[in-house]
Amino acid sequence: MSVLLETSLGDIVIDLEVEACPKTCENFLKLCKVYYYNLHAFFNVSKDFLAQAGDPTATGTGGESIWSLIASKQGTQAPRYFTPESVPRLKHKHKGTVSMAVAPALEDGTKGGCGSQFFITLGENIDYLDGKHAVFGHVVEGIETLERLNEVFVGQEGRPFKDVRIRHVEVLDDPFPDPGGLVVPDSIPTRPPDNSTRIAEDEDPLATLPEEEAEELRRKKAAEASALTLEMVGDLPFANVRPPENVLFVCKLNPVTRDEDLELIFSRFGTIMSCQVIRDKRTGDSLQYAFIEFDRREDAEQAYFKMQNVLVDDRRIWVDFSQSVSRLNNGKWSNDAKLGPRRKPGASNFGGREDLEETRRYRAGSADRNGGYDMVFDVPDDRHHRRRSRSRSPGRDRDRERDRDEERRYDRDRDGRRGRDRPRSRSRDRHRDDRDRRRR
């Protein structure tokens, strides 16, 4: 009677001693039949000693017999373990010996025995295990798989750094009838039962991408990091923002071309929500490029194909889809040019992306409630008092400056009127009285 274990390192075929250990073999076969061992990990691997599996928690403390599993699904109780079958002639003499791990009795009175955990020996003549654990089978195919399993890198607790899992179990021959209440699942498990943080069994930690793909991945990550930085400093509304698809960028314009001219020319393709020629902030001169926002993306695409290299005001214009996201952040195509009356009601700042528009409204509401995003702490109640104090400070500064001017004029008069002590003394006293009166 045989069982095929398909592992991440290769296949293993196990012949079972059904005549010498019928109860142990029945337990193992029925657990295999209900896919109990599927995606289980070899959680304890010792070089030239053994490789242990069969615990759904991968900790060495879980697992139960098939009769306990059936009882738990039926809502009844049954012993977790069954009594091991020890056969003196079955020893751990050869590599590939398969044994059920025998759990010791616990202090709370729980009786020890065999559950679902089993191990496969990776060395010869391991007589230390004889009489302590129940041998019930031998590996007849897959010795090379055991050799690969013996060479895996493990941590201090003996678990491989890269998971080694039983991908699937196939029962080749089963002579035992199914126990009452046994239900075979309709589907095979697709997720491991344990929460492993190790390297996945289908992941290659040393794999390298081709140079072109690696460079593309590095650039993508660098762009994501830059976008996140721009969002943090306020230059982008969102890190994952993308240019709207209904906005065209038109350049090589004649300086005399106006917003009305472009809108009239492009309006034959569809409804235009805004049309703006970008101008210099100080002089008002055209910078010879513009942004045109259509109501629909299809209209923008049609204008893109039809208006390329068209003659407008004796200039052949160039049309492309806009890559600017500045208006998504501040409502303007540039920091210098305002939208003015050319902006039509109902136009969206996010090219139809409702998720970005909702986030903008939420942030705007939070900013109105909290006074902006520049505060990360509660503002003290005396800030109004400090603002009033700052508003009065310029007047006091002017008084002090006027006093200094009078003091300097007095000093110049004193230097010009040497020898006339009495008038100088009266002038100084009068100056001080006037200054005190103003301060009061």
UniProtKB/TrEMBL annotation:
<dbReference type="Pfam" id="PF00076">
    <property type="entry name" value="RRM_1"/>
</dbReference>
<dbReference type="GO" id="GO:0005634">
    <property type="term" value="C:nucleus"/>
</dbReference>
<dbReference type="InterPro" id="IPR000504">
    <property type="entry name" value="RRM_dom"/>
</dbReference>
<feature type="region of interest" description="Disordered">
    <location>
        <begin position="180"/>
        <end position="203"/>
    </location>
</feature>
<feature type="compositionally biased region" description="Basic and acidic residues">
    <location>
        <begin position="352"/>
        <end position="361"/>
    </location>
</feature>
<dbReference type="InterPro" id="IPR035542">
    <property type="entry name" value="CRIP"/>
</dbReference>
<feature type="compositionally biased region" description="Basic and acidic residues">
    <location>
        <begin position="394"/>
        <end position="440"/>
    </location>
</feature>
<comment type="function">
    <text>PPIases accelerate the folding of proteins. It catalyzes the cis-trans isomerization of proline imidic peptide bonds in oligopeptides.</text>
</comment>
<keyword id="KW-0697">Rotamase</keyword>
<feature type="domain" description="RRM">
    <location>
        <begin position="246"/>
        <end position="324"/>
    </location>
</feature>
<feature type="domain" description="PPIase cyclophilin-type">
    <location>
        <begin position="6"/>
        <end position="171"/>
    </location>
</feature>
<dbReference type="Pfam" id="PF00160">
    <property type="entry name" value="Pro_isomerase"/>
</dbReference>
<keyword id="KW-0413">Isomerase</keyword>
<protein>
    <recommendedName>
        <fullName>Peptidyl-prolyl cis-trans isomerase</fullName>
        <ecNumber>5.2.1.8</ecNumber>
    </recommendedName>
</protein>
<dbReference type="GO" id="GO:0003755">
    <property type="term" value="F:peptidyl-prolyl cis-trans isomerase activity"/>
</dbReference>
<dbReference type="InterPro" id="IPR012677">
    <property type="entry name" value="Nucleotide-bd_a/b_plait_sf"/>
</dbReference>
<dbReference type="InterPro" id="IPR035538">
    <property type="entry name" value="Cyclophilin_PPIL4"/>
</dbReference>
<feature type="compositionally biased region" description="Basic residues">
    <location>
        <begin position="384"/>
        <end position="393"/>
    </location>
</feature>
<dbReference type="InterPro" id="IPR002130">
    <property type="entry name" value="Cyclophilin-type_PPIase_dom"/>
</dbReference>
<keyword id="KW-0539">Nucleus</keyword>
<dbReference type="InterPro" id="IPR035979">
    <property type="entry name" value="RBD_domain_sf"/>
</dbReference>
<comment type="similarity">
    <text>Belongs to the cyclophilin-type PPIase family. PPIL4 subfamily.</text>
</comment>
<keyword id="KW-0694">RNA-binding</keyword>
<feature type="region of interest" description="Disordered">
    <location>
        <begin position="330"/>
        <end position="440"/>
    </location>
</feature>
<dbReference type="GO" id="GO:0003723">
    <property type="term" value="F:RNA binding"/>
</dbReference>
<dbReference type="InterPro" id="IPR029000">
    <property type="entry name" value="Cyclophilin-like_dom_sf"/>
</dbReference>
